[in-house]
Design goal:
Residues 246-314 form the Helicase HerA central domain. Pfam families: DUF87 (PF01935). Residues 1-30 are annotated as: Disordered. This protein has three domains: 40-210, no CATH class; 241-356 and 569-734, P-loop containing nucleotide triphosphate hydrolases (Rossmann fold), CATH 3.40.50; 372-562, no CATH class. Helix 10 (399-405) packs across helix 16 (538-547) and helix 18 (571-580) crosses helix 19 (594-617). With 760 residues, it is an alpha/beta fold. The strands form two sheets. A twelve-stranded mixed sheet has the order 9-8-19-18-17-10-16-15-11-14-12-13.
Length: 760
């Protein structure tokens, strides 16, 4: 009797067959992906030699002169790849999870010894002796060396560093996900008796290597898939076409620069400024993406232009001054003049729209002294000016000057209290009088001083004035009496700033003298006071002390270049608002006094830092802002400085979470504060001429391998570049900055970066 087939078993068998078929299709698909991703790095016609010895850090490669010639030579520090994969073979099949399914990336460090070196040298020496005196034939020709010997002596060793391993993994580590190329900065195993074939990557293979980005190191950002071209691969100073690397473009991801620290080091005239222009232009161009699928992005950028080379047109780098000026970048793609805003201490005829780095140091007349918020808003520029003065006078060792720097003129919260308001208004009046004594012109709204306080009462009590008029010091009694009359609110209509400053000088002498009678007055005042406070609080005492010294007003006069009586806004806040709009701001510091430049930059940086910090604390994503500091040793704290509260140090350490990026350029690595260096993610290194600087550089990544090249190669624009998302250093010839401007003077769009050739 025949048993009927089980339908469920048949279904199960078909299911297993379908699974096997799907698995086979998946395997074949992954074979194709493996060949495409890993196989692209291994180029058959670029075969060079074999691995001879290796460990976890170094590899000795045996090469032959014939292969050297075929691949166009092997420059120092060039890339090589080593692998057992040979994807061009018809039967080439491999599983991407197998150990051999990987490609080692090597960097050539120099020659390596081989076992036959001693004997080889003896043979060469004998051939060279035989050739001595013959001017027409070299010792390696057939006259002196037979073919077999020449062939054997053509083998040599190359010492290579293991840069890392290219291998495959699934995107996001998802089961069944697409394969992607990954990179590890080491090797996970080696077999001393298992050879790898070595190739010199060129064209597409070298392009993959030079532009590889590790997804795990790439910040999650709307720009994470965008890249911009900065130049092409260059291995050595002797850069000959036969090497086959000049047409391999190098791109960097702008997202690596945002909220990160970026360093540009090198001697003058080696390409730092050109590189800065290339970077700034690339970030600016993000507002008009080439791919319509990419959303436009406006990133605020500010350049502290110490030498005025970005804010002004000049011939540095090109005779075409208009195309060489970064300030004209808005013309390249049909932008507007308001996209690029320049600031400076003066307004040149060539830049009539330049904004001035000035404030009204007197502030505005408060609308309501009893309202702390309105008072703080109206006196904002006065407080800013006092803060700038603090920076300008920070190095003065005089005790009275240090006391003055500690005076706090910010509005207190309890201004409705008559006593508190009177004390505060008195301090503001004295500070303004000190400014006029220093030669600063008050604004039209404050043409004359006002000694009236709350309820129109005088800011100087009648009992104080009576004490001055009744001073027992006969030698100064008349002087005290005149000053008392000037300070009397009854005479406010005839009071001028000059008269007030003279009266305050006398008041300062009255308070400081033991014989003036002030001590008795003050003792009685304290006894009757509800708070037990003296008539002159600490702020008033320190302000009056400035009137007693001739250098007091002279020192305050250093604020004059920052003062514009008709100004109504703080330049730092204006700049911050420009950056929030995604504009490019260039601060021209050329010709300015170093202390003024430093104070202005510090003021702007605090506005940026605190502004983005407020957004972060409020739970809002801060806007990306990129800060460039040219001649950074003039603004950033020196290497020996250890003030962790400095705004530059805080920006370096905390700027990432506040979305503030910092790009700093200078000649000396050792001149930069260590906390800033330690937090630097991106590096652009050109020629440095001494080992003191390269010794500092050796502390970071594997720049030690490039030390000799950095010391010797002086070619302009030849940089070694390490980016955040690229796990190794690339040697790059940076393209020359030159804007592609319309010939007619009418802004027009362009479709390329405007590469005018490499900087040589």
């Amino acid at each position: 009797m025949t048993t009927a087939p089980d339908p469920f078993e048949a279904i199960e068998q078909r299911g297993e067959a379908d699974k096997k078929s799907a698995a086979q299709l998946q395997h074949e698909h992954e074979q194709e992906q493996s060949a495409s991703l890993l196989g692209a790095l291994v180029q058959k016609d670029q075969y060079l030699g074999e691995t001879l010895r290796m460990d976890f850090r170094t590899v000795t490669v045996q090469v032959h002169d014939h292969q050297r010639r075929l691949v166009g030579g092997i420059p120092h520090l060039s890339y090589l790849v080593a692998s057992r994969l040979q994807p061009w073979k018809k039967d080439a099949k491999w599983n991407w999870v197998e150990e051999d399914s990987s490609v080692l990336l090597l960097r050539v460090l120099g020659a390596a010894p081989t076992p036959s070196d001693m004997l080889d040298t003896i043979v060469r020496a004998e051939a060279a002796r035989r050739a001595v005196g013959n001017e027409t034939a070299h010792w390696d020709t057939k006259e002196y060396m037979d073919g077999y010997t020449r062939h054997q002596l053509s083998f040599a060793g190359l010492a290579c560093e293991v840069v890392g391993t290219f291998y495959l993994g699934r995107k996001n580590d998802e089961d069944g996900g697409e394969l992607e190329l990954r990179f590890g900065t080491d090797i996970n195993n080696f077999y001393p008796n298992k050879g790898l074939k070595v190739y010199k990557p060129v064209d597409d293979a070298l392009r993959i290597i030079a532009n590889f980005r590790d997804p795990s190191l790439t910040p999650d950002h709307a720009l994470k898939n965008r890249t911009v071209r900065i130049g092409h691969v260059r291995y050595a100073s002797t850069n000959r076409p036969m090497q086959g690397v000049d047409d391999v473009e190098v791109e960097i991801p702008p997202v690596d620069l945002l909220a990160q620290r970026t360093a540009l080091f090198g001697m003058s005239r080696t390409g730092k400024s050109n590189t800065t222009k290339i970077i700034a232009r690339a970030i600016y161009d993000l507002r008009r993406p080439k791919d319509p699928q990419d959303p436009p992005q406006r990133v605020g950028q500010i350049i502290f232009d110490y030498n005025g080379e970005y804010a002004n047109e000049n011939t540095q780098g090109s005779s075409d001054v208009e195309a060489n000026a970064l300030k004209n970048v808005w013309k390249e793609q049909g932008g507007t003049v308001n996209d690029v805003i320049t600031y400076g201490m003066s307004k040149p005829t060539t830049d009539p729209d330049r904004r001035l780095l000035q404030i009204n140091a007197f502030g505005n007349p408060p609308r309501d002294w009893s309202d702390p918020e309105k008072t703080a808003e109206d006196l904002d520029m006065l407080v800013v000016g006092k803060s700038i003065l603090g920076d300008l006078l920070a190095d003065d060792t005089a005790k009275y000057m240090k006391n003055f720097c500690e005076v706090d003129l910010s509005a207190p919260d309890n201004l409705k209290d008559a006593s508190k308001q009177t004390r505060y208004r008195r301090a503001i009046l004295m500070y303004r009088a000190l400014l006029t004594r220093a030669g600063l012109t008050p604004p039209p709204t404050l043409a004359t001083p006002d000694t009236r306080g709350m309820g129109r009462n005088g800011l100087f009590s009648s009992k104080l004035l009576d004490a001055m008029r009744a001073s027992p010091d006969a030698t100064k009694a008349a002087q005290y009496s005149v000053a008392a009359d000037l300070l009397d609110v009854a005479n406010v209509a005839s009071l001028t700033w000059d008269k007030l400053s003279n009266a305050l000088q006398t008041l300062a002498e009255f308070i400081s003298s033991k014989d003036s009678g002030y001590t008795d007055f003050n003792t009685a005042y304290i006894q009757k006071s509800k708070t037990g406070e003296a008539w002159a609080d600490q702020n008033v005492e320190r302000l009056l002390e400035m009137f007693r010294y001739a250098n007091g007003a002279k020192s305050v006069a250093r604020l004059a270049p920052y003062h514009e009586p008709n100004n109504t806004r703080d330049f730092a806040q204006q700049i911050y608002e420009d950056l929030l709009q995604g504009n490019l701001v260039i601060v021209d510091q050329a010709g300015g006094e170093p202390s003024l430049n430093e104070a202005a930059a510090r003021r702007v940086m605090w506005a940026i830092f605190k502004g983005n910090q407020r957004e972060f604390i409020s739970g809002n994503p801060p806007r990306d802002i990129l800060v460039y500091v040219e001649e950074a040793h003039n603004l950033l704290p020196p290497s020996k400085e250890d003030d962790l509260k400095d705004v530059w140090v805080r920006t370096a350490k905390e700027g990432s979470k506040y979305r503030i990026g910092l790009v700093y350029a200078t000649q000396e690595v050792s001149s930069i504060q260590k906390n800033i260096l330690k937090n630097t993610a991106n590096w652009f290194i050109s020629h440095l001429n001494n080992t003191d600087e390269t010794k500092e550089l050796r502390k970071f990544y594997d720049f030690a391998n490039f030390e000799d090249s950095i010391l010797r190669a002086q070619n302009r624009g030849f940089l070694r570049v390490k980016m955040l998302s690229n796990p190794y250093i690339n040697p790059v010839q940076i393209q020359r900055f030159l804007l592609d401007l319309p010939k007619t003077g009418t802004p027009a769009a362009t479709t390329d970066e405007g590469d005018a050739g490499a900087v040589q």
